[in-house]
């Protein structure tokens, strides 16, 4: 019996250790775990929590929409400003082109006038320029001297010309940018066109070119007496 | 007499081990709780047997571990069929006949 008792004692001893250990491990775990709170939350509480989160999210969404529209407005107004300045820039660009401040190029004609039976006179040049302008030339240069609004053509002595203050002489290479067809056809009208009128007195050659380059004016555009008229 | 002492010392040692042990993951603690119930059931069965003077160690030990095993199987089955509640008394009652 003693042996049995010893076995029993030892067995009970170990069983007690095991049981108590496990029990207290469980106590410790439950004490320190807070998740039990969520598990025990009842359905109604969960529903309330979800509802409140939902309303919060909706609020945030509306706010986000408002902010987005505001951003769109601001970008639009910036673009409009940019548009306005773009328009002004374009105007300035075209003004520069027309006034002769920049080199320009485009399709057009090149006319060479050389002395023939008679010499070239300023009046002939002016007539040519006038014809070209009538035919819609947008830029004209004679011997690479740009003809601006206020350019003048004068002959000082025999054969010495001053165009816009710059000295030049025959032969005269007149370059004009505009519609090729109009320019050339208006000069080559039968009998009354420029070419026919002066072809017996001078040596004229007319050439249509796809890329005519007209250089900028070297003379400074000074305005001393001009000022903007008051609109009434 | 000596058995009492053995039980007492065993309990104290068990308490010391339990308090100083690392925390078990929450999911396992559920199973642990049910195992404790089964074990307690065994212990009370053993006490009853002792009072009736027909305590059989082999029955006690085998019952102890068999009940724990059985209760874990029941718990697993419970989660499989998605039954949320299962009272401890039910488990104990089933376990008594195992």
Structure description:
The complex is a heterodimer of chains A (232) and B (98). Chain A is built from six helices and eight strands; from the N terminus they run H-H-H-E-H-E-E-E-E-E-E-H-H-E. By secondary structure, chain A is of the alpha+beta class. In chain A, the strands form two sheets. A five-stranded antiparallel β-sheet of chain A has the order 3-2-7-1-8, with helices on one face. Chain A has a three-stranded antiparallel β-sheet with strand order 4-5-6, with helices on one face. Chain A is rod-shaped and about 160 Å long. The model of chain A has no long low-confidence stretch (mean pLDDT 86). With 98 residues, chain B is mainly α. Chain B is 80% helix and 0% strand. Chain B contains four helices and no strands. The radius of gyration of chain B is 15 Å and the shape is flat. The mean pLDDT of chain B is 77. The chains are: A alpha+beta (232), B mainly alpha (98). Chain A binds chain B through residues 4-5, 7-30, 32-33, 35-36, and chain B through 2-3, 6-7, 9-15, 17-19, 21, 23-24, 26, 29, 32-33, 35-36, 39-40, 43, 57, 61, 64.
The description of the largest β-sheet of chain B is:
none
The amount of helix of chain A comes to 40-55%
Envelope shape of chain B:
flat
Distance between the termini of chain A: 137 Å
As residue ranges, the low-confidence spans of chain A are none
Biggest interface, chains and residue tallies? A-B, 30 and 29 residues
Query: Taking Cα atoms only, what radius of gyration of chain A do you get, to the nearest Å?
Result: 48 Å
Total of helices of chain B:
4
Helical run tally of chain A: 6
Structural class of chain A: alpha+beta
Taken as a percent bin, the fraction of beta residues of chain A is: 15-25%
Spans of chain B of at least 5 consecutive residues whose pLDDT stays below 50 are none
Distance between the termini of chain B: 31 Å
- What is the overall pLDDT average of chain A? 86
Average pLDDT over all residues of chain B: 77
- How many strands of chain B? 0
The helix fraction of chain B, in percent, is over 70%
Could you give the order of the helices and strands of chain A?
A: HHHEHEEEEEEHHE
Oligomer: heterodimer
* Total number of strands of chain A: 8
Strand percentage of chain B lies at: under 5%
């Amino acid at each position: 019996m003693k042996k049995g008792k010893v076995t029993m004692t030892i067995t009970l001893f170990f069983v007690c250790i095991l049981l108590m250990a496990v029990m207290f491990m469980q106590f410790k775990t439950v004490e320190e775990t807070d998740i039990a709170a969520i598990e025990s939350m009842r359905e109604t509480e969960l529903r309330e929590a979800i509802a409140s989160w939902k309303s919060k999210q909706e609020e945030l969404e509306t706010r986000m929409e408002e902010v987005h529209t505001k951003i769109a407005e601001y970008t639009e107004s910036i673009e409009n400003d940019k548009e306005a300045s773009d328009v002004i820039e374009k105007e300035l660009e075209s003004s520069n082109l027309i006034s002769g401040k920049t080199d320009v190029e485009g399709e057009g004609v090149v006319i060479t006038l050389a002395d023939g039976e008679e010499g070239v006179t300023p009046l002939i040049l002016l007539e040519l320029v006038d014809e070209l302008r009538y035919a819609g030339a947008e830029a004209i240069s004679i011997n690479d001297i740009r003809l601006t609004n206020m350019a003048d053509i004068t002959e000082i002595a025999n054969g010495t010309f001053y165009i816009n203050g710059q000295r030049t002489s025959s032969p005269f290479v007149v370059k004009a940018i505009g519609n090729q067809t109009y320019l050339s056809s208006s000069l080559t009208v039968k009998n009354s066109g420029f070419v026919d009128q002066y072809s017996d007195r001078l040596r004229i050659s007319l050439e249509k070119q796809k890329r005519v380059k007209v250089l900028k004016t070297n003379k400074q555009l000074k305005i001393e007496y001009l000022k903007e008229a008051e609109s009434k | 007499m000596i058995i009492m002492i053995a039980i007492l010392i065993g309990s104290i040692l068990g308490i010391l081990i339990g308090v100083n042990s690392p925390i078990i993951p929450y999911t396992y603690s559920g199973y642990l709780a049910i195992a404790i119930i089964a074990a307690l059931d065994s212990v009370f069965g053993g006490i009853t047997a002792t009072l009736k003077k027909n305590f059989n160690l082999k029955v006690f030990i085998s019952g102890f571990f068999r009940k724990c095993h059985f209760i874990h199987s029941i718990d697993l089955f419970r989660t499989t069929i998605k039954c949320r509640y299962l009272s401890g008394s039910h488990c104990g009652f089933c376990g008594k006949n195992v």
